[in-house]
Model the fold of this input.
Amino acid sequence: MSWLNLLYLKLLLILSFACSVHAQISISIEQDIYKYAQEILADQPISEFSAEIFNHPKCQRDVVEFLIAQRALMEGGFQHTFSFTLGNYDARNLKLLESGLLLMSFDTIWLSQAQTIADDVYISEPIINKGAYFAGIYTSRSNKVTLRDKISTDLSNISIVSSRAWLVDWITLKALKPKQLHHEDDWITMAKLVSNGWVDAMLVSFNNTRPFYYEGQGYRIEAIEGIKVALQDSRHFVVSRHHPLSKEAYTALQLGLAKLKTQNFIHQAYRQCGFITPLVDDWLTL
Done:
């Protein structure tokens, strides 16, 4: 996109908000996350759902954060509404945030990643503290036992797929010296590669199913029992500094998150979802 086209889009954005007291804001979101969130929410208003709704087989970290972001903004007094554009936006959202074409990400990002664009975004208080994030090593159901025997203190005997856009994941995996480390932008494509045995494994957060697994059209991946990977960074929401509603949204977000933390709502939501789980406390940490 040329700088003239970008400037034109930003001017249109500013004019559209200038003409509306309560604007509708377009937010890009992964299609599967939106679908799961709607199923879990089950037509409940954002202002009323409880943390218990996340005790659901379709729940995962991204779903919790998608709904928590909306709840926090509302709790903080943000009165604008959202429309959601569905697709594969993992790699593109950072560029949209930097340019001001996206108000905020409804999925948290690592602090180290947020700091690389700190001139362009406001960074929220941590939603997941450093040291609290553990991921499982997920593979196909038929490969679980074989791969478990190949893993000792590193991943040197197996192949892994991840994304360079997931900075902490990528750095952590490189340090664990996998036999092969493949880059792929799309999460569902990763899951299909692993499920079909074309790549051995991928890192995924835990959920509330036992055995831990994720399943969708064309894939099913399961966590290798007894092993987890520590990802040493905190995760945060970010708000674009260049969007017309940036200061209003950031102020509301911080206020709303503080309220939800005081109520222990965020911790309970992650716990109901299984992202924070005592079931893996005794697992070997790589």
Q: What stands out?
A: The chain has ten helices and 13 strands.
